[in-house]
Write a structure and sequence with these properties.
With about 500 residues, the protein is an alpha+beta fold. It has helices spanning about 1-45, 90-100, 125-130, 180-185, 255, 260-265, 305-320, 335-340, 355-365, 380-390, 455-460, 475-480, 485-495, 495-510; strands at about 120, 150-155, 170-175, 175, 200-205, 210, 220, 225-230, 240-245, 285, 290-295, 400, 415, 425, 445. The chain is globular. It starts with a helix and ends with a helix.
């Protein structure tokens, strides 16, 4: 009896403790539930509290507006916009020929296509922008880089050029030259002497590491380690900053140029006043013809103001072709042999005259954007929802309406879907090259357009995404995001495998 009473007494005490414990347990469960709700709202794109998903619009199937081009019989980034007036098509094709045919060393019997180099990266515009698409990065360590290049500068600010060029090699490393020894280097003939050496040779190694998703799925990521060999003009400045660049695709740039500046400025949120973690910034750059500072929207760091300035800069820096915008040779004052080489200058004092430069510019501006593929499939539509819910559209602004353009009616007042805000965003340390450009910091990059992304491999075999071509798939590109895009990346990471595949399928349909 006593034992029974003792047990009952203990039971009474235990029941009293249990009541207190239940309160703590209930409180703990409530806290966990609240934490789970907050976590799912931040990391789960299926949460009702995530980004709003807009209704599908019919115009989404035609990213380039009325000028969107067919992908039949095969996709191309080299087609004239579908709504281009037939009267200007001949000039478009003349510009295409100029962009496609190689330039040659001066002097020659031709006066229209001589003046290559003396140092350069490519002989034609489309040698880097292969078939109008992105560059093809080398995969083997002994294969030199031919469709990209290395940006160079030293610390300091320059209002005009955006950077202070490396004193001997300038702001871009040219790995080709007109020297016969360079052209015949595969023969390894030691008797040849450089007339003008290339600045250096550039090679890339691709070390990999493995990323593991929370669900156990794995993917390999690679990051470039570049090697600069055989410097042709002596050592570089000890504080030289270097940034690897892969050539981006050029489709739709005329439409991007026709977007009203006010529409871009409306997206600027430099101090993140709305608290969404995204603080898009406008780069301001030098207009070499207007001789004033203007907004930048082209180039990987939005360091070019217009298609004209971008094209003229490529002629000068990539091919060594002097032009009305940049009339000098690409040689620095420390490259005496380079400066002594003959030029292909015409009567106006440049190697490409204004009329030919304009043809190439207008060809580039007239390139059409392919129509969407599989836009109505269930998986693509599901991926579209995940794209918005994950927060990708915060930087990859889906659509704009272009301004009126009487000179180029095919670009005028078009509803387009480029998925870019053309602004700078801090992408974190993993994508940083530490090299500023005008107002862009070493970790800031312009949001790249996504249209045509899924056709890259079919157009030219190039699956080299991001500024340095490190990403071989859309998935890899997303996993390299950081900084302002870290939250969107985490949202993607915490999707199920099928949801991730749907999201990348949507991006591939653009």
């Amino acid at each position: 009896m006593l034992r029974t009473q003792t047990i009952n007494a203990h039971s009474t005490e235990y029941n009293f403790d249990m009541k207190k414990n239940k309160l703590w347990v209930l409180l703990l469960i409530a806290c966990c539930a609240i934490s789970a709700l907050l976590y799912s709202s931040f990391f789960n794109p299926n949460s009702e509290d995530t980004m709003e998903v807009p209704d599908v619009q019919a115009s989404e199937k035609f990213p380039g507006g009325d000028g969107s081009v067919s992908t039949k019989p095969f996709p191309s980034f080299m087609l004239a916009m579908e709504n281009m007036n037939s009267e200007i098509l001949p000039e478009f094709h003349a510009g295409k020929a100029l962009a496609h045919q190689p330039w040659v060393t001066a002097p020659t019997i031709t006066f229209d296509r001589d003046g290559l180099g003396p140092i350069y990266n490519a002989r034609t515009c489309l040698m880097c922008h292969v078939n109008g698409g992105r560059g093809v990065m080398p995969t083997k360590p002994d294969h030199g880089l031919n469709t990209g290049f290395l940006r160079l500068s030293i610390p300091g600010e320059d209002k005009i050029h955006g950077v202070i060029p490396e004193p001997t090699y300038g702001d871009q490393l040219q790995s080709q030259s007109v020297s016969l020894k360079h052209q015949l280097r595969h023969l390894k003939n030691n008797n040849l002497v450089h007339t003008v050496p290339p600045e250096a040779y550039l090679y890339i190694d691709w070390p990999e590491h493995e990323f593991v998703y929370p669900d156990g799925s794995k993917v390999k990521l690679r990051k470039p380690n570049f090697r600069v060999e055989n410097l042709g003009y002596g050592p570089m400045h000890p504080d030289t900053m270097m940034g690897l660049r892969n050539a981006p695709p050029i489709l739709g740039v005329g439409l991007l140029e026709t977007i009203p500046q006010s529409a871009i400025e409306a997206l600027v949120d430099e101090n993140d006043q709305n608290g969404d973690g995204i603080s898009g910034r406008q780069n301001y750059v030098w207009d070499f013809e207007a001789e004033k500072t203007v907004p930048g929207r082209f180039g990987l760091k939005a360091n070019k103001a217009s298609v004209r300035l971008q094209t003229a800069g490529a002629f000068h820096g990539d091919m060594g072709i002097s032009n009305p915008v940049f009339p000098d040779q690409p040689c620095t004052e420390n490259q005496k042999k380079c400066l002594q080489q003959p030029t292909g200058n015409d009567k106006a004092g440049t190697e490409i005259p204004e009329n030919q430069l304009t043809m190439v510019i207008n060809f580039t501006k007239g390139l059409g954007v392919p129509i969407r593929r599989n836009a109505d499939s269930k998986s693509v539509l599901a991926g579209r929802e995940h794209f918005y819910q994950a927060g990708c559209a915060s930087c990859h602004q889906p659509n704009f309406k272009t301004a009126e353009d009487k000179e180029f009616p095919h670009l005028s007042e078009q509803v387009i879907w480029p998925y870019t805000d053309l602004l700078l965003h801090d992408m974190g340390p993993e994508l940083a090259d530490g090299r500023p450009d005008y107002l862009a910091t070493g970790s800031e990059w312009r949001t790249p357009p996504l249209w045509g992304l899924g056709l890259s491999k079919k157009v030219n075999g190039a699956q080299n995404f991001l500024h340095d071509g490190r990403a071989r798939t859309i998935e890899e590109a997303i996993l390299w995001h950081g900084g302002e895009a870290e939250a969107a990346k985490q949202n993607f990471i915490h999707l199920s495998k099928q949801q991730r595949e749907n999201l990348t399928e949507f991006v591939n349909s653009l």
